[in-house]
Specification:
- The complex is a heterotrimer of chains A (375), B (362) and C (152).
- Chain A is built from 16 helices and eight strands.
- The N and C termini of chain A lie far apart (56 Å).
- In chain C, the strands form two sheets. Chain C has a five-stranded mixed β-sheet with strand order 1-2-5-4-3.
- The chains are: A alpha+beta (375), B mainly alpha (362), C alpha/beta (152).
């Protein structure tokens, strides 16, 4: 009897429980597992458990030549595969001080931006789906299909292209590439209005996203939340503007910023980025100069001993590659600083004291790609 | 009524009389009940299967897809194929679940919707029971479904199910108020709760037109609240697939899942037919006051056509909501009910009562 | 801040720091004991203001284990690369910077997971990719696993 009296009194409000979101869950878009501590419906804590798709790409890179590494980077952020390839190519070209032809720069920039649009389209449709608007999913995929068709025609594959090679491209673009890209831009300028009509202006959507998961600029920098998510907090972190590569210093585009920092701002930044990407493509597509699509490289590339850091703006944010070479054909250490991995770190901070539904919305707005987290 | 051929009263009456003539009263009653039960069971299944097919076609149309098109012409047998598949699927045994409640829950849900369908008039003289408190009965019976949902969530021994069930409980109990009050607005206007009388009173014009603005407001509120009550998007929080995987029926498989699935569509059919009956005149053709000629032409169209047409229209509206809107959050959902719909509804009833008192309605 | 002035400033704070020449960023090898105090000053001093840790890499140089930090300042736009090394392969340990840059929290967990380098006072020092009962640290050069690794 005495023991019973001495038991600590716990009220209902103190009762916390855990649920496992994932590794198989519709809104984690892959095999991310979130252990969510809940009080009723309120999220108290989110613990991400990664590694369900960890393939040890960094370890594999230590055994591979630089040409082979390109094929591995496709598999990290499979939605912006071209941009990942671009990073490795720039790293190798920078280390060997190779100047690629103008034509290559033009094509790379156009293809990168097409890839960015495709990635944002898929993000948009899955974002709509996470908030319960299933129709968005099909609208987004319908338009993404056009880009994938262009890719398929020119590069032979739809998702994992491995189109860039150190020193240039694997092959020249298809003769239809320019026309089809222009047709796509014309088509998508009309269709992007649908995106606004079905989701952006919707009252329910605005209520679900405005003021949810607010991240200040200081927090964004401290957590390293880069890319569109960081720019939604007002942080000018666009690598294309800060450290221009390829043609980005010669084209005119706006770095989309917002000072709200909530889910809605992250949404609008990405929608506007698609418009900016179209603007970049329009400036370049008619002016692709004639010339070689690649410079002659040695069959075995050996980087001079030293350390190299190369960053590009992937669709999710800053993709950095840190490479240590000892002069051999394989690197000593290849580190990929992937944007999704860094952005995942802020999920716990943003979703505390929010509802489960908000956790889903915030997770979707950070645009996490799970293979990009796990590598 | 101008056309007695569309009046089913004599038809049903003659069956009734014939049965009582041939059989002793007790057996006649039993046979009658069996016949009605069978007819409803078949009708229920056909309507359910058709609605699943319709939803898939409608959402395909909205999402620029083709939808089911493989099984039969235009894929019309797709749902039957799906149903056979569900029948043959294994019923997964859940460890540590409350087996009795777990097994009962789908039946409660489906029985609740089955009971409600009994009171709905499909045409003149074509309904199982014509209660004098028909509307009240339907409200009472449809809200029983939430018990099944709560039990399903509780007994599954799954936190997702439990969250879904609790959401569903909070949601249905709240929105029940709005459904009841918006129907009450029309009851004030009609002065009766008997479905047959409600329909007859609309022979000179549907209540949504007769009752001026309050009736229109009540109609809109009923539409919103009944969508929420049937757990359909944008109020499908109990299932919320992107948050709770499948909510309260996460752990169900095979035919038990099919019961939940079917009951959801039948609930949609029931609320749509209540809306059609109470606001849009049920099987009553479209009549305008004293335009004899116009009304005469309208009477040519059979009442079953009118009834199913109106119901289909409202079901289509509900599908339209579902496939265009994102989902609400639970606190926003309850805010909408308690802060907006309920006060509007209460004021609305007052206005309606005033209009009826002053005799301003048509 | 100019690269030259930045180098002078770092050498002023930590005189033992070794400057590495001909690098992309100003690069210093910092004695691990001095690292935390330097990191704190990098973050907090107004004219340095390194508020963004954009990369944190664990490296196995063969005999030495270490961590490479890349900092940048979003206001002054200057960057810095710092290295800490240790020859202790049994139980390597450095001070955490997760309290200064929250982004380091996940990076450091990754380094612990793959290199076995501990970070003292880290809020949540668990493995991040591999299972808790995984034996060894796969990214080390001397890691061998006959079963799972296919040698090319």
């Amino acid at each position: 009897m005495k023991e019973i009296i001495n038991l600590p009194v716990r009220s209902i409000e103190e009762e916390e429980y855990h649920i496992n979101m994932g590794p198989q869950h519709p809104s984690t878009h892959g095999v991310l597992r979130l252990v969510v501590t809940l009080q009723g419906e309120t999220v108290m804590k989110v613990q991400p458990h990664c590694g369900y798709i960890h393939r040890g790409i960094e370890k594999m890179c230590e055994k591979d030549t630089y040409q082979q590494i390109i094929h591995l980077t496709d598999r990290m952020d499979y939605l912006s595969a071209h941009i990942n390839n671009h990073a490795v190519c720039l790293l190798v070209e920078g280390a060997l001080e190779v100047e690629v032809p103008e034509r290559v720069k033009y094509i790379r920039t156009i293809v990168d931006e097409l890839n960015r649009i495709a990635s944002h389209q898929l993000w948009w449709c899955s974002f709509g789906m996470d908030l319960g608007g299933l129709t968005c999913f099909f609208y987004g995929l319908r338009d993404r299909e056009h880009i994938l068709d262009i890719f398929e025609e020119s590069f032979g594959s739809r998702l994992l292209h491995s189109y860039y090679a150190p020193g240039g491209l694997m092959q020249d673009i298809h003769p239809n590439f320019q026309k089809r890209t222009k047709d796509f831009i014309k088509y998508f300028r009309k269709k992007i209005k649908d995106y606004d009509n079905i989701l952006s202006g919707n009252v329910i959507f605005e209520n679900r996203s405005q003021g949810i998961g607010v991240m200040s600029k200081e927090e964004a920098i401290n957590y390293g939340v880069c890319g569109p998510s960081g720019r939604a907090s007002g942080w000018e972190c666009d690598i294309r503007k800060k450290y221009p590569y390829a043609m980005y210093d010669k084209v005119d585009f706006r770095e989309v910023l917002s000072d709200k920092g909530d889910t809605y701002a992250r949404y609008m930044v990405r929608i506007d980025e698609m418009r900016e990407s179209m603007k970049i493509i329009e400036q370049l597509i008619d002016n692709i100069p004639e010339g070689d699509y690649s410079v002659k490289m040695k069959p075995i590339i050996k980087l001079p001993p030293g350390e190299y850091y190369q960053r590009v703006e992937s669709a999710r944010g800053e993709l950095g590659i840190y490479c240590i070479s000892d002069g051999n054909k394989t690197p000593v250490r290849m580190k990929f600083r992937t944007p999704s991995f860094v952005n995942l770190g802020v999920l716990d901070k943003l979703s505390r004291n929010m509802k489960i539904a908000d956790l889903v919305a915030i997770g979707a707005s950070l645009d996490l790609v799970i293979p990009d987290i796990d590598r | 009524m101008a056309f007695n051929i569309y009046d089913f009263t004599s038809f049903t009456q003659s069956i009734d009389e014939a049965l009582y003539e041939w059989l002793p009263p007790f057996w006649a009653l039993i046979v009658e009940m069996t016949i009605i039960g069978l007819v409803f069971l078949i009708g229920y299944a056909i309507i359910g299967l058709f609605l699943v097919y319709a939803e898939r076609k409608v959402c395909a149309f909205m999402q620029n897809r083709v939808g089911p098109n493989r099984v039969g012409p235009y894929g019309i047998f797709q749902t039957i194929a799906d149903f056979i598949k569900l029948l043959m699927k294994e019923l997964v045994y859940i460890k540590n679940s409350d087996k009795l409640l777990f097994n009962i829950a789908p039946f409660i849900v489906i029985i609740a919707s089955f009971m409600a369908i009994a009171a709905i008039p499909f045409a003149k003289g074509l309904h199982a029971i014509d209660f004098d408190i028909g509307i009240m009965y339907v409200i009472a019976v449809t809200s029983l479904g939430v018990v099944g949902v709560l039990l399903a969530g509780w007994s599954s021994n799954n936190k997702y199910s439990l969250i879904g069930a609790m959401r569903s409980g909070a949601q249905i109990i709240s929105y029940e108020l709005s459904v009841g009050l918006s129907l009450l607005t029309i009851i004030v206007l009609a002065g009766t709760m008997q479905f047959s009388e409600v329909v007859e009173l609309q022979s000179s014009g549907w209540f949504i037109f007769k009752g001026h603005i309050p009736a229109c407001i009540a109609f809109v509120i009923f539409l919103i609240a009944s969508t929420a009550e049937t757990n359909r998007g944008p109020f499908d929080l109990a299932e919320a697939e992107s948050e709770l995987t499948a909510g309260f029926h996460t752990e169900y498989s095979g035919i038990k899942f099919a019961f939940f699935f079917l009951a959801e569509y039948m609930n949609m059919f029931i609320v749509a037919s209540i809306a059609a009956t109470v606001f849009l005149g049920g099987w009553m053709p479209f009549h305008i006051g004293s335009w004899e000629g116009f009304n005469y032409v309208m009477d040519f169209i059979p009442p079953l056509f009118w009834y199913f047409g109106k119901t289909a229209f409202i079901i289509w509206l509900m599908m339209w909501f579902k496939w265009t809107f994102p989902r609400l959050r639970i606190d926003q959902l309850l805010n909408l009910e308690w802060k907006y719909l309920l006060p509007i509804n209460l004021v609305n009833i007052l206005i309606m009562a005033f209009i009826v008192l002053m005799g301003w309605h048509f | 801040m100019e690269a030259e002035k930045l180098k002078e400033k770092i050498l002023e704070i930590v005189p033992e720091a070794q400057l590495e020449e001909n690098k992309q960023f100003p690069t210093f090898l910092i004695p691990s004991g001095k690292f935390k105090s330097l990191a704190t000053r990098l973050k907090e001093e107004k004219d340095l203001d390194f508020d963004y840790l954009f990369c944190l890499t664990g490296v196995d140089w063969g005999t030495e284990l270490g961590v490479v930090y890349h900092f940048t300042s979003t206001s002054f736009n200057h960057s810095l690369e710092l290295k800490v090394k240790t020859e202790n392969r049994e139980n390597p340990e450095f001070d955490t910077v997760a309290d200064l840059w929250r982004t380091a929290e996940f990076f450091e967990r990754e380094v612990w997971d793959l290199f076995g380098i501990r970070f003292t006072d880290h809020p949540d020092m668990r493995r991040i990719f591999l299972e808790e009962d995984w034996v060894g640290y796969p990214m080390r050069k001397d890691y061998t696993d006959e079963v799972n690794i296919v040698e090319l």
